[in-house]
Amino acid sequence: MDEEERPESSMPENVVLIGKKPPMNYVLAVVTQFNNGARSVKIRARGNAISRAVDVAEISRNRFITDIKVGNIAINSEELANEDGTKSKVSSIEITLAK
User: Fold this and answer.
1) Distances (CA, A) of 43 to 6, 23, 62, 73
2) pLDDT category, 7, cuts 50, 70, 90?
3) Contacts of 39 (CB under 8 A, 6+ apart)
4) Which helix (H) or strand (E) holds 52?
5) I need a labelling partner for 10 at 20 to 30 A (CA). Which of 3, 41, 44, 91 fits?
6) Which run of H or E residues covers position 69?
7) Strand partners, 90
8) Residue 30 has what pLDDT?
């Protein structure tokens, strides 16, 4: 799909959402963002993926782009609805890396 055909997303381009994939997949996404001219990249994760987000930030910073700094770290709790209708709180983190 070309750039013009892609539907407009509510997620900004410089955000990497961390999931269950290996950390190096997300490191590649962070490095690609910086190589494409981004001045900052936000790494977001929830729950069990928080430690993976920290790994991604540290690997990106120490092994690949050594001139980026950790700009801001924001922690939060989000309330999610479960399948049975109950609600539970899940921790989240957003790490900003900036040149």
Assistant:
1) 22, 12, 16, 10
2) very low
3) 98, 99
4) helix 50-59
5) 91
6) strand 69-81
7) 78
8) 95
Q: How far apart are CA 45 and CA 83, in angstroms?
A: 21
Q: How far apart (Å, rounded) are the C-alpha atoms in residues 53 and 45?
A: 6
Q: CA–CA separation, 47 vs 91, rounded Å?
A: 5
Q: How large is the angle between the packed helices 23-35 and 50-59, nearest 10 degrees?
A: 50
The architecture that CATH gives domain 15-98 is 2-Layer Sandwich (3.30)
Query: How long, in residues, is the chain?
Result: 99
Token match 């479960």: residue? 82
Q: Which two tokens stand for residue 3?
A: 């750039």
pLDDT at residue number 45:
96
**Number of helices and strands (H, E) in the chain?**
2, 4
Sequence-ordered strand ranges (E) for 23-65: 40-46
Q: Please state the φ and ψ torsions of residue 64, each to the nearest 5 degrees.
A: -110, -55
